[in-house]
Amino acid sequence: MTSMQDTVGSVPKEGDAAPKFKLPAHPSGMISLDDYLGKKNVILAFYPKDDTPGCTKEMCAFSKDLSQFDEVNTQVLGISCDSVQSHEKFSSKFSLKQPLLADVDGRVGRSYGTVSAGKSTASRKLFVIDKKGVIKHIYEGMPDNDTLLSFVKSLK
């Protein structure tokens, strides 16, 4: 688990503005939080590593339910410290549909408190960000998609 003293800067909380980011992604080129502001809610799903059992389960579940997230105007973004090339292989192997962002230096993960200073993997944490760019909920670990869908449906 990441502690406050292990991260750079302060860790965002529910109600805070989500830290901005712009990262290379598979298959979409560059993706930024600004791409969705005013348009869609975002589930920013930090996960430790491509093609490992827990991460595969989580990303496959998102992919399977992606159309349901689309129906509630929500974009799912997977993010880890793996490279775009690693994401491409992972996505191809499991036919993943959601974009996977490559935070190879861990900078974005540190700004969200999911990557400890000096580390190169993120902890599993999900941030639900509304259309205004505000963090509405933070989930530690891997909540089920029904829970996430119920929550994003409640966002105005």
Distinctive features:
156 residues; Glutaredoxin; alpha/beta
Summarize the helices and strands and which ones pair or pack:
Elements: E1 22-26, E2 29-32, E3 41-46, H1 53-64, H2 66-71, E4 74-80, H3 84-94, E5 100-102, H4 107-111, E6 125-129, E7 135-140, H5 145-153
Parallel strand pairs: 3-4, 4-5
Antiparallel strand pairs: 1-2, 1-5, 3-6, 6-7
Beginning-to-end CA distance, first to last residue: 32 Å
Q: What's the CATH topology label?
A: Glutaredoxin
Average pLDDT: 92
The helix-strand sequence is: EEEHHEHEHEEH
Q: Assign the CATH class.
A: Alpha Beta
Q: How many beta-strand segments? A: 7
* Reported CATH architecture: 3-Layer(aba) Sandwich
Largest sheet: 7 strands, mixed
Total domain units: 1
The spatial strand order of the largest sheet comes to 2-1-5-4-3-6-7
Please identify the structural class as seen in this structure.
alpha/beta
Instruction: Report Rg.
Output: 14 Å
The helix fraction, in percent, is 25-40%
Q: Specify the overall morphology.
A: globular
Q: Going by CATH, what is the homologous superfamily? A: Glutaredoxin
Q: TL;DR?
A:
The protein is of the alpha/beta class.
Task: Characterize the structure shown.
With 156 residues, the protein is α/β, with parallel strands linked by helices. It has one domain (15-153): 3-Layer(aba) Sandwich (Glutaredoxin). The protein has helices at 53-64, 66-71, 84-94, 107-111, 145-153, and strands at residues 22-26, 29-32, 41-46, 74-80, 100-102, 125-129, 135-140. It has a 7-stranded mixed beta sheet with strand order 2-1-5-4-3-6-7. Helix 3 (84-94) links the parallel strand 4 and strand 5. 35% of the residues are buried.
